[in-house]
Write a structure and sequence with these properties.
Elements: E1 4-8, E2 14-19, H1 22-25, H2 32-44, E3 53-58, H3 62-70, E4 75-80, E5 105-108, H4 112-125
Parallel strand pairs: 3-4, 4-5
Antiparallel strand pairs: 1-2, 1-3
């Protein structure tokens, strides 16, 4: 799937990046966001990604939204909304649940048309 993610440090450096490798790695957790968060943690030497921004082409699923909260990411930016599995407002909203100990600033719909077109083309080519 054409899903990619980057983690940007407060100073503007890209400290983590990932692409969806679930199928190629036969790993249900190998989503772009998870791989980018893992790399960012290694680069910083800390699981807390305070002040960092996670940017991704598609609204994160429940697993990735939860990992974003647990990593203490400050801001989440995504392109296309996912009405079927999105957990940042599409289907439900994990990252802004007031019961959690950390809330994430969300900017959704950035370059939404371009991100949606990438996904649509990908799936049309496989039909």
């Amino acid at each position: 799937m054409p899903i990619a993610a980057v983690v940007v440090a407060p100073d503007g450096r890209v400290i983590g990046q990932g692409v969806n490798r679930r199928e190629s790695d036969s790993d249900p957790t190998a989503h772009a966001e998870i791989l980018a968060l893992r790399e960012a943690g290694r680069v910083l030497g800390d699981w807390r990604l305070s002040g960092c921004t996670l940017a991704v082409t598609l609204e994160p699923c429940t697993m990735c939204a939860g990992a974003t909260v647990l990593a203490r990411v400050q801001r989440l930016v995504f392109g296309a909304f996912d009405d079927k599995a999105g957990a940042v407002g599409g289907l439900w909203d994990v990252v802004r649940d007031p019961r959690l100990n950390h809330n994430v600033e969300v900017v959704g719909g950035v370059r939404e048309a371009q991100c949606s077109a990438l996904l649509s083309t990908f799936f049309e080519e496989r039909r």
